Amino acid sequence: MNAPKPKPSKEVDLMITCLCDTFYDQVAASTVKVLEHVGCTVQVPEAQTCCGQPAFNAGDWKAARKVIQHTLKAFSSERTVVIPSGSCNHMVQHGYPLAFEESDDLEDVISFAKRCWELADYLVNGLGVKKWPGKFDGKISLHRSCHTRGSDSYASAVQLLSSIEGLELLEFDESEQCCGFGGTFSVAYPNTSTSMGKLKIEKLTAVKPNYIGATDMACMLHMGGIASKEETPFKVMHIAQILDQALQTKEAIA
Amino acid sequence: MKTYQPIDAFARDAEPEVKASVYSTSKAKYDKRLASLSTGFTAPDDLRKLAGQIKQHTIEHLDQYLEQAVTNLENNGAKVHFASTPEDANQTILGIMQSINASRMIKSKSMVSEEIHLNAFLEKHGLESVESDLGEFIVQLDDDMPSHIVTPIIHKNRRQIATTFEKHGLGDYNDDPETITRRARKYLREKYLEAEVGLTGANFLSAESGRVAIVTNEGNARFSISANRTHIVLLGIEKLVPRDKDLALYLNLLARSATGQQLTVYTQFLNAPKSADQPDGPEQLHVVFLDNGRSEILGGEFKSILRCIRCGACLNVCPVYRQSSGHAYRAVYPGPVGAVLSPLLKSNSYPDFADLPKASSLCGACNEVCPVDIPLPELLLRHRNKSKIEHQKKAAAGTPPLGAWAELCSHPTLWKTTLATGKAMNHLPIDKMPIPPIQAWTHSRELPEFRGGKFRKWFKQRKS
Description:
The structure holds two protein chains of two kinds. Chain A has 13 helices and eight strands. By secondary structure, chain A is of the alpha/beta class. Chain A has a four-stranded parallel sheet with strand order 2-1-3-4, sandwiched between helices. A four-stranded parallel sheet of chain A has the order 6-5-7-8. Chain A is globular and about 50 Å long. Chain B is built from 24 helices and ten strands. In chain B, strands 1-10-7-4-2-3 form a six-stranded parallel sheet, sandwiched between helices. The model of chain B has no long low-confidence stretch (mean pLDDT about 95). Chains A and B meet through helix 1, helix 2, helix 3, helix 4 and helix 5 of A and helix 1, helix 15, helix 18, helix 19 and helix 21 of B.
């Protein structure tokens, strides 16, 4: 496995992620506010686009390498990189070294990966934040977005959210199961993917949450997309939005 | 919904009854696995990792361990055979049967015997081969294929089984499980006594002693061994563990991962034929090692798949397996392990099975439950890369090409222009566009409002 990462700094480059850049701008904005609340100085490198995962997972590693090389250039500052996505971070930590395993650039992608942190993991294990201030009225089914497996991200998200006054995290069945997105899998296997998504939504909503929480925009895109089509909307929030909303309350400001 | 992928079509068209059986059984097994691992051990995850390391070590030194195993087996009095292909293995087994004028075999469950299609081969040569594992027995009666490594008839319910029994003259229709079992037992007892040769697989073979470990819940392996003068063990070359004491780790993990039991009901050890010092056992013991592409896998990027101990945990947890069932994978080994292994076996053609590694959302649940910590998502990804380089048509079907997308993502000016102009999407009837991937999405899912570039604008404004 990977060697332990050096402690991160509070001088942060935000990886917007392509999904926040196109659909979920509010998640990126909440991430900035959350990071600033814990004393970070946030910059947003202009040249960034996507981490390259769509091509990598589709099997086109040549195309993925091109995008990865661009990403490395876009984040060449040596600052800590924070990513509000377990999935993009998983790509950086595991996909990048795989895509470059036979390349002279392997060292570069590994050293980049060591600077990258998923948001919740960064807050809890990077900066040592144990408790989140403010208040949040509501019950949340927190979907365990799959690409947080094998990392500390999900446990960190649980720790932060459950420390918020008024917020209740619900237990639900089949928490290990995927929402069915899987990148190009969702269009190459539309029937399987949709059935997986419907089952996931059924399990998440069976315990009657006020919100569904997720650590990834891709899960939000998929579950939200199915729910809109079925006309059974539910509110889905990214963990950054939940943390940000708690900060807006008078309990946080006091 | 129209699909270009056979496994997806299978999921779409599967009988609701089959889907329900597969879903409920695999879910129950997953839950039991979790409970038995966490009650039995304080750090089950560390055990998985250790078991993975020992297996990885074993396959990396397989030449040495095989040599050691063969020496020990031969010193114990067993006869060892190597089969490079399924055809070789079948011929070897036929040869053993012919050498003792045997015409009837009783066999316990063995995935390698499925891999070489042993029953069909023996039948073609006028020899009888009867499956004694209840699930495999039903598969054989139905002329069906197992759809799971451990639970071959996971796709069937007891009403279907009762119908099969009635059709084959095993009593009037009765779907009471106890009655079904008693009827099978009565029928099979005769077969055990009539058989001249017994055949089992091997869950493990210790190189240190040549000891074979076989686990069952029905005791049928023990019966197959006891009743016959000649016994054949058929196994893949990767089934070795270095030492007898490693069995403690693997037997514990295997049963818990497969069925949620602490141990299977029967654990059989067999290391030698009958001798002056050992009054029990068969007069002849043959051990047949099958390669079928495994030695080639050893030398390449998919090596770690040979750690597999065939527990089926990755099938049980896999959401795609749960939706599509094992038959969707068109091969002996279904689910995530099958998706990695099937394309690589010598008896299969890679292009025919190149789609299997695409049948995954890469959620990683398979790796999380694997008792030998096989990095299954990584191996699936390696297959996808290989298929792309080799232009495998079956792998490509339905996946949109991403070359133009990569251009877009490596040119930031172009990217930002697209963010600005993409808003037009919100006003276009994109679900009516005749573009297959878009239709595949919009048939069952909406897209949220396109808000390209809004974050960048917000960030700039608050900085200034």
